[in-house]
Amino acid sequence: MQRSLCYSLLLATFFWISNSVFALSVVSGPTFTPATNAPLAGRLQLATDSASRVSVSVDDGTSVWTHDFYDFGTTHSVPLLGFKPGTTNVISISLYDQNQNLTAVEQTLTFVSPALPLDFPILTVLQDDPSRMEPGYTLFHIVLGNTNYQAIIDNTGQVVWYSPVNSFLEIRQLTNGDLFISSLTNFMELNMLGELVQSWVVPTNLLVNLHDQVLTDHGTILYMSDTSTVVSNYPTSTTVATAPRTTANNVIYQTVVELSATNGAVLNVWPLINLLEPNRITYLTSLGPPVWDSEHGNGLIEDPSDNSIIVSLRHQNVVLKFSRETGQLVWLLGPPQNWDAPWQPYLLTPVGAPFEWEYGQHTPVLTPQGTLMVYDDGNYRATPFDPPVGDATNYSRAVEYQIDPESMVVSQAWEYGSNAVDQLYTDKVGSAEPMPQTGNVLICFGSVKYVNGVPPSVYGPNATMARIQEVTHDANPEVLFDLAVTEYNNPHAATKALYVYRSYRIADLYAHPALPVADLTISYQTDTAQLQFSGDPTHTYMVEASTDLANWVELGVAAEEGQSGSFSFQEPAGSGNAFRYFRVVTY
Q1: Cα(537)–Cα(254) distance, rounded to whole angstroms?
Q2: Which residues lie below 8 Å from residue 571, measured CB to CB, with a gap of 6+?
Q3: Contact, 158 vs 86, CB < 8 A?
Q4: Cβ–Cβ under 8 Å, residues 135 and 437
Q5: Which of 108, 203, 422, 457 could form a disulfide with 488 if both were Cys (CB 3.0 to 4.6 A apart)?
Q6: In sequence order, which residues have a C-beta less than 8 Å from that of residue 164 and are 6 or more positions away?
C-alpha cells in the first residue's frame, strides 16, 4: 500500500519517559446538543484539565454502540452519529491521556431521540442478509411531492440518520465525511450535523442542472447547466415519420461546466449540442412548443484513463464520451436508429449475446474492471418509429457494458432486472453502483410504477414506490437486501407519489482521515525503544527510524492494544543504535 501521511517525529535518547498514572478531570461539560438539521445526531462538548481523547458508549436499551475519537486536546467538540429514532440513549464517556490511561467520566448524558416525522415514508425490509452485504450504510434522497428527506439506514434497514434539508436531487458523501449538495445557484458542503461548511456560487449564466454534480479529486466541480437555442427542421411527431417539421425556438440542451473549487472560476465549458445531432428525437423527447427538451442530461463522470468525460443524456437514449483536451466526441453508446451519417463512425457496435441497449438511462459508473455500469430505466425500449413497449410489460435493470474504444464495439458483461423474481419498472430516476469490497451491486429502483406488471398500490398510477436492492454480481444474481420505500398506506401522507433519486453505500457515518499523532510517547530501556500512541484502527501504522532525518528504515507495524485505538511498538532487540529518530506513517 502507498504511504499516505507522515504522522509524527520524535528524537529518542537515553532517558526514560514515565507512564505515571493520574486521573483526568473534566473542567467543563459534558453537554450534548441535538442537531437542528439532523435530528438523530448531535454534538458532544467537554473540556479537560490536560490533553485527552474521547471515547463514547451509547446504550439505547436494546443495543450498545461505541465510537472513539482521536483528536487530542483539552477542548472537545465532536459529532455523535447513529442514534435510532424514538429511543432513550444513555451516553457514557471515557477519556484517555497521552499515556493511554483511562478515566471514566462519572456523569452520563441522556438523549431521547425523536420519532420519525409523521410524513416520513414507510421502510419495509423484504430481504436481508447482512453477513453477505457490503459493509456500511445506505444514503438516499426521498421525494414526496414537495417534501424531501435525506436518509441513512444501516444494513438491517433501520434509520440511523436523516435530514429535512432540501438538497433538490443529488446528495453524496465526500471522502472527508461531509455531504455535497446543490441548489440552482450554488453548491454546498454540509457536515453530518447539517451545518454549512462551505459553499460555491455559480455564474448566473451557468445555473445548475440539479441531476448531478461531482467534486473531483483534482480541485474542481463538474456539473451540467441548461441553456437553449433555435433548431430548424425539427420533428413534430414521434409516431408519424412523415409529419411536417418546424423551427423549434426553445430547444433545451446541456452544457458541461467545470469550476475551480478554490475560487469558483469557470475553467471549462463544453456545449453538448455541438457534439450531437440537434434535431434527433426519441420517444422521451418533449416536443414543444413552448419547450423542446431534447437531451435531458442526468449523469456525468470522469474517465481518468484517457482524460475524458462521460455523460448520460436520457432523452437521447445515449451515453457519450468526449475528450477533455479537445472537446471532441469519442463514442456514442445507445440504439443506432435515427443517427445521420456524420455520427455513424462514433456509434458503438454490439457484439455477443445476450445484448440489449439502454433506454432512458441514469448514473453512469466506471467499475474497477474498467467496464461501464448504468441504470437502464427502459422507457419504451424502442426508437421512433418502431413500436414501443408498454409500461405494464416493461422492466428496468442494472446493466454493465464492456467497451473496446479501439475497435468501437460493446458487449453486455452483466445485467440484473429483466429476469428478476420481482420484475420492476421505473419510468424515471434510479441508480446502479458496484460495491468496492464484495463486488455486489447496489441498485435503486427509484420510482417503481409496476411490479410484475401490476401497479404497486390500489391508489392508481401515481402511487409509485422505490425498491433499493443489493444483489450479487454473478451470472445468476442473488438478492441479498431488498428495501421497499412506500408511503401510500401512510394516513398522514399528503401525496401518493414517491421516488428515491439515487442510493449510495457509504463505508461509515464518520470520516476516517489520517490525523497527526499528537500523543506519541517513547520509553527507552535496555537498548530498545517502546513507542505508544493513539490512532484510528481503520489505518495501518508503520514505525520507521533514521539517524539523519533523510534515510528512513522500516522497523515494523504497530499493534493495537485491545479495541480502544491504543497502539504500541517495541523496537527490535539488538538494533545497535543509541540515538536516532522515530516516526509513524500510515498506509
Answers
A1: 45
A2: 528, 529, 530, 531, 545, 555
A3: no
A4: yes
A5: 457
A6: 37, 117, 148, 149
CA angle at 391 for the pair 387 and 394, rounded to the nearest 5°: 85
Q: How would residue 276 be classed by pLDDT, with cut points 50, 70 and 90?
A: very high
Could you tell me the three cell numbers for 121? 415514508
- Contacts of residue 95, Cβ cutoff 8 Å, sequence gap at least 6: 24, 26, 48, 52, 53, 54, 55, 102, 103, 104, 105
Residues in CB range of 3: below 8 A, 6 or more apart:
542, 585, 586, 587
Report d(CA 349, CA 356) in Å as an integer: 12
Edge to edge, the sheet with strand 580-586 lists 5-12, 580-586, 541-546, 553-557
Decide: 288 and 297 in contact? Cβ < 8 Å.
no
* pLDDT band at 87; cut points 50, 70, 90: very high
Handedness of CA 348, 352, 355, 361 (dihedral sign): negative
For residues 101-117, average pLDDT: 96
CA gap 251, 480 in Å, rounded: 44
3-class SS shares of the chain: helix, strand, coil, % to 5: 5, 50, 50
